[in-house]
UniProtKB/TrEMBL annotation:
Example of a GO MF term: transmembrane transporter activity
Pfam (any one): ECF_trnsprt
Keyword tRNA processing attributed: no
Coiled-coil region(s): none
Protein name: Metal ion ABC transporter membrane-spanning subunit
Source species: Brochothrix campestris FSL F6-1037
Record's keyword terms, sorted: Membrane, Transmembrane, Transmembrane helix
Amino acid sequence: MVAYFNRRSVQVTLVFLVLIAVFSYTVFVTEKNYVLLSFIILTLVLLLFISRFESRRVSSKEMVFLAVLIAVASASRLPFVVIPNVQPVTFFVIICGIAFGAESGFLVGASVALVSNLVLGQGTWTPWQMLAWGLIGFTAGLLRKTPLLQKRPLLIGFGFVVAFLYGWLLNLHYTLIYVRPLTWEALWTANLASASFDLMHALGNGFFLAVFTTAFLKIIRRFQLKYGLVLPRDDGRSEP
């Protein structure tokens, strides 16, 4: 396990799990002020992951390249709005996590949600989308050296699973804001109602990962080599 995960990524994950435990206790046990608490914890989680990115030594070249990838991923979302839940954003976020590491994967995922919603519309769902896509990028970066993401069938399966997790997290946002009283039954009903849309998202992820992964990783690796971009090592340092 040590060969796969660096210490700081594990630390961030543990803090995130603690915050989720506090949130779950407040929502389902105390049932008090959970909407306000959800946005406070969302803010803390986003700041936590972004601070981990800030703690890395990131060159100006890498920042520019990440900004270009964020712009491309955000633009790629627009042509697919006519097809329910089929969009290449999740694919881009996964690829960025694999290519640049966990912290950069989170930054790309969170930024794409914020930037693309400048056109598609901001709302209470935006920070939840930032968290959902950010966590997908972070997880892809965390698992990038494991067999799960090294083998194409398992990578496609990963894209399939995270599509449903993305949908369930957005369903949690819906039930927290609009459903009273908040119950497990209400949450599962929302998940069942969105199952067909989540399936479309999953199938889209599978298609993009199956067809475009090799080509996009080659393009990114070529730019990394050409411009001397560094890659994060498992100990949190950098390697050429």
